[in-house]
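Re: Re: token formats

Sure, here are both.
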Amino acid sequence: MSPMFRALSIRNYRLWASGAIVSNTGTWMQRVAQDWLVLTQLTDNSGVAVGITTALQFAPVLLLAPWIGALTDRLDRRKILITTQITSAVLGLVLGLLVISGLAELWMVYLLAAGLGVVAAVDGPARQAFVSELVPVEYLPNAVGLNSASFNAGRLLGPGIAGLLINWLGTGPVFLINGFSFIAVVFSLTHMNRDELRLQERPGRGNRSARAGLVYARSHPEIALIMCIVGMVAMLGLNTQITTALMARTEFGKGAGEYGLLGSVMAIGSLGGALLAARRERPTVKLVIGAAAAFGVSSIVSALMPTYWTFALMLIPSGLAALTMLTAANATVQLATTPAMRGRVMALYMAITMGGTPIGSPIIGWIGEEFGARWTILVGGMGTLLAVGMALLWLSRSATLREAVKASDTRPLMTVTKTSDRAAATGTPEAAAVARQTATRTSGATENSAA
């Protein structure tokens, strides 16, 4: 099998990927339909209302994810995911029935968006960490890249299909289709061979708290750097569900079909970035920084495009850069974290990356109403470049960070020892220092023996 698809040689991963592509397509259909419902049917082109809806859907991730991550490290992640998929299906079906019956009001959409946010807070860390149970560690970067490819294949198909269905049938049926799409993931999860799963290492008694994930991330400065960059970009630059809706509706005077097409065009670049990530043997911190810079520049250029079609074309490099940054960041954080801590560290990662959205989306929506749609993208691009500049300044001034980044980019997979993890989780500065020294010594010893 081609190295790009080697994770698919694992039966359980094939089941997971096949269910995910169906569900991801349905999820993107719902996102487009939800934003269009709020923007055109329940309000008079209110960017703030769309921003509030988005914020409610992502705020629970910011508030709950660290505690959910601790739970994820203790419980069966497969069972957690089955529960979240069923709950998401119910919420999607309820919204669809409300819209079709003509009973839907803005506050109902807000309430259901918040409900989806709570489910996402549980689902996200479990989903991220579950991939490591499906494949060997040497396949993990490939599996993360293919996961992103699946997500963005759904993003490529979903908005276009949603735009057509909204024109033909309205938004209600789109929500119903998304509700039924979760059946595919539940089927894949229930038909896996559980004996072939690589079950996670359970945390020790003194290493079970949500705080342990924060301490672990702080003791690994390369992880902290990645989270700072991606968090800033997510808050200001990755609000495409708002920015493309406003650009299509208010700047270019387009309808639902053209809005959905913008999402599909951007997904072309995102899918390309995901496939490139799947070919990459290992991600690096430098790649995260470089991709973030490329995203900032391409976002600013896209905001200056004079026509609908030139704007649409510029979304391709934006999607490529954004997805390269996100997949590299995701895989780097996972590979720098041992299995017993992965649920909590990934929960913290999700809280920062997804939690930035409820902070930034109302601001971006307000900017769109006050200054115009183009400024929503310009502010995101400039904010992204500011984050990159701050990261480079941090790197230039911190020798400890430079050493950690160099070690992360060069050491063999998973060389951080259990001893260093236990020390990092105790919470004292001395323990954190021991953790870093142990990890560095282990990395150096492994590299020397390999040479």
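Second one below.
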Amino acid sequence: MSRSDLKRDPRHCETINLKRRHLLASAAVLGIAPWLLSACMTSSSFAADIHTSTTTGFLPASQRRKLGTLEVSSIGLGCQWVPGTVGDSVSDFYHSTLDRKAAIKLIRTAVDRGITLIDTAEAYGPFISEEIVGEALQGIRDKVVIETKYGWNFDQKTGKPLGGLNSRPEHIKLVVEGMLRRLRTDHIDLLYQHRVDPAVPIEDVAGAIKDLIAEGKVLHYGLSEPGIQTIRRAHAAHPLTAIQNEYSMLWRGPEAEVLPVCEELGIGFVCWSPLGMGFLTGKITADTRFVPDGPREFRATVPRFAPDALRANMALVDVVKTWAERKNATPAQLALAWLLAQKPWIVPIPGTTKIAHMEENLGAAAIRFTPDELRELNASVASIKIQGDRLSKGVLALSDVEAPPEH
């Protein structure tokens, strides 16, 4: 096969692309600018050098950020799994599957690469994701910050959904005991209320957390998708460490009020779905269709991924791809780097089922924008009107909720 034939061979192209993704990730974790490596690497040296660079790479301690007073890696790992359809497999919410052993290996490899923030929740499974995280972190617990979330109403023995939300103080304390067992630890570094309970004053919630902090079972607390006044009230009752909301180029809602309040109060911000549920990786096309599969394909219910909206929203992917080429990065790296560039106290927690993608994501930490570049990129992103709501109506109704007043 000639050199020109090799270039046209899709299998060869995929191999080169995979090696390039590994190289870019390694450039970041080694502290080397990816454009410099790409400029210096020839096609003949690519294969020879890639193995060494990917197996010795790590996210250095210099790539740390502060959520309030809590120091974490600039990029975390989201562990969000539900039961798979075969054997001991588990699936994420975006139709990717792996077996339990592979999930454990993914987490341990992430820690080896320098990731110190591991995110999960009681609701993921339920219970399964916490159990996997707990097993994976045996022997290396002291190297990581574990954050998990409570707030749904599950039977604590069976995991059976009992309907709705439950943030009553006595329930929170019961839930935390189960979390500690599943996570195989004596403390949770950062505990979030998964969604604001409209039946429980946030001061009561903060009171329960303060009791758990006094007992050493919880070190820091936060809220996910809360209303603005609830943030202020919770912080007044006991300082919040972080807010966890959806935030990406695809959904910039937090910029209006949540990020300014976080900056004002000194609260960190953690981004869930920082890659827009996979949309910003460039792997989704206008012809992609999402087939319902229970909790294993969340996007099937999301309006912005409906066919007409998806087609219109591809304009954003074009922007991401253009800038990724400009910065010699992958689209996923570019999207994460954009988040990191917004504020120094923002930390994305991309989830994945593949070690190669986790390593690729780390490459975002090496990408830098000049002030002019960031203004230009922000303007390009802002010029695109995203079609369709970010979540289904039922799920969206649980965001921006204000807790009831104190009794």
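The chain has two domains: 1-57, 75-396. Residues 10-29 form the longest helix (20 residues).
- S.
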